[in-house]
C-alpha cells in the first residue's frame, strides 16, 4: 500500500464520526516532506471547532497509522473567532 492509500485508510477509520456531524475530509496532497494537506468538507469546513477536530482526531489517526507523516495541515481551517463560523446542527 502506498502512502496515500495508508493515509486514506486512516481517514476512513474516523470518517463516520465526521460524517455524523455533517462533515468530511479530503487529501489535497502529500508533500515530499511528508506533510499531509487536507481540505475540511461540509460542516467541518465552517466549524469553529475544526482545529480541535484536526489535531485531536484527524492528525492522531493519521500519525498512528502512518508514522512517517511529519505533519498535517488544513488548507481551509476556520478560526474559532471567525464571525462566519457555524457550529454543526446535530440532534442526538
The number of helical elements comes to 3
Share of residues in helices: 40-55%
CATH superfamily: Fe-S cluster assembly (FSCA)
What are the secondary-structure elements, in order, as H or E? HEEHHE
Radius of gyration: 13 Å
Distance between the termini: 37 Å
CATH architecture: 2-Layer Sandwich
- The fraction of residues in strands falls at 15-25%
Number of strands: 3
Strand order of the largest sheet: 1-2-3
* Quaternary structure state of the chains depicted: single chain
Indicate the structural class.
alpha+beta
How many domains, in number, for the residues? Answer: 1
Mean pLDDT: 82
Largest sheet, if any? 3 strands, mixed
CATH class category label:
Alpha Beta
Using the alpha-carbon principal axes, give the shape: globular
CATH topology name: GMP Synthetase, Chain A, domain 3
Which spans of ≥5 residues are poorly predicted at pLDDT below 50?
none
List keywords for this structure.
single chain; 92 residues; alpha+beta; GMP Synthetase, Chain A, domain 3; three-stranded mixed beta sheet; 41% helix
